[in-house]
Amino acid sequence: xxxxxxxxxxxxxxxxxxxxxxxxxxxxxxxxxxxxxxxxxxxxxxxxxxxxxxxxxxxxxxxxxxxxxxxxxxxxxxxxxxxxxxxxxxxxxxxxxxxxxxxxxxxxxxxxxxxxxxxxxxxxxxxxxxxxxxxxxxxxxxxxxxxxxxxxxxxxxxxxxxxxxxxxxxxxxxxxxxxxxxxxxxxxxxxxxxxxxxxxxxxxxx
Length: 206
Prior knowledge:
The chain has 206 residues and is of the alpha+beta class.
């Protein structure tokens, strides 16, 4: 691990009229622990890097750089690739070849889902020039793939896997253990369906 640039962190706090104690309160830690981190006596975690970035209003990448940590050495949370697109009809279609996301989107993703999360995360981009999803055209939705119907998907906007293999973006109103479910399409159409999987959308990045 590279050496932490403690002066950079102290300067960032000074520039914003903030104190080490205020940052420690934000992190829910003792000020002495944060001080040891900035002096290189304690390793900064990725969860802390994300929280510090939010506190300072800078990117997670910048905090990581000055903290002397790399994505490879820290095994930064999930590796997120753009793996699917969502059409005007709400159908989720896998891309033949997943693509990397812009760094700005990745930074927002880490802050939104928590840098310490070790689950695999899938990104799907909305491509809808018309219809109910057009307000989200070009937005990126993040979700974690699942083998079943996640409890958190009930009542939430979710990626729903139907029994025939098709995946759709819909609000899951209710679901039985046997898979029978009621879903609401982006247009507001209610339909009964048999689901195999349902994963709640973790975040929408415009």
